[in-house]
């Protein structure tokens, strides 16, 4: 798990990690994104530019904390082309997580032959107050 932290008054974003999902379906087109699964012949996309989610001020004042799970699709160019919340915490935290993840860029995942492939994987963002 990669940890990033930043101070926002009493707020801090605690962790961002990439988790695994289901394997690709047999016979899928190379253009269609596949679910990233560790040790299944596809390298993990590597984040190149990470935008830190902004902790919503109102949520900080109300001491709202939580973990947002985002399913992100990264294309063969390393761009996030789709992001959706698969498990939310609070609508304000969900929106902040999506707004940030959609701006991230990656070194794309690659298949066993080194060809870039589009993948869907899970990003976990934790919002925690100090």
Tally the structural domains: 1
Radius of gyration: 15 Å
Fill in the CATH topology: TolA/TonB C-terminal domain
Q: Identify the overall geometry.
A: elongated
How many helical elements? 2
Structural class by SSE content: mainly beta
Distance, first to last CA: 20 Å
| Helix proportion | 10-25%
Q: Outline the biggest β-sheet.
A: 6 strands, mixed
> How large is the share of residues in beta strands?
35-45%
CATH-defined architecture: 2-Layer Sandwich
Round the mean pLDDT to the nearest integer and report it: 80
Order of helices and strands: EEEEHEEHEEEE
- List low-confidence stretches: 1-30
How would you classify the quaternary structure?
single chain
Can you identify the CATH class? Alpha Beta
**Can you identify the CATH superfamily?**
TonB
Question: Using DSSP, what is the number of strands?
Answer: 10
Explain what the structure shows.
The chain is mainly beta. It has a single domain, classed as TolA/TonB C-terminal domain. It is 12% helix and 40% strand. The chain is built from two helices and ten strands; from the N terminus they run ββββαββαββββ. It has helices spanning 57-61, 91-101, and strands at residues 2-3, 11-19, 34-35, 46-49, 66-74, 80-87, 105-107, 109-110, 116-117, 119-129. Strands 1, 2, 3, 5, 6 and 10 form a six-stranded mixed sheet that branches. Strands 4-7 form a two-stranded antiparallel sheet.
């Amino acid at each position: 798990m990669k940890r990033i932290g930043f101070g926002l008054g009493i707020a801090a974003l605690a962790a961002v990690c990439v988790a695994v999902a289901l394997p690709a379906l047999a016979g899928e087109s190379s253009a269609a994104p596949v679910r990233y699964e560790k040790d299944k012949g596809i390298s993990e996309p590597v984040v190149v530019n990470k935008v830190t989610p902004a902790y919503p001020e109102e949520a900080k004042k109300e001491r709202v904390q939580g973990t947002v799970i985002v399913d992100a699709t990264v294309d063969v160019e390393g761009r996030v082309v789709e992001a959706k919340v698969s498990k939310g915490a609070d609508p304000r935290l969900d929106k902040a997580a999506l707004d940030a993840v959609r701006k991230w860029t990656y070194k794309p995942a690659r298949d066993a032959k080194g060809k870039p492939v589009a993948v869907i994987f899970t990003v976990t963002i934790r919002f925690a107050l100090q």
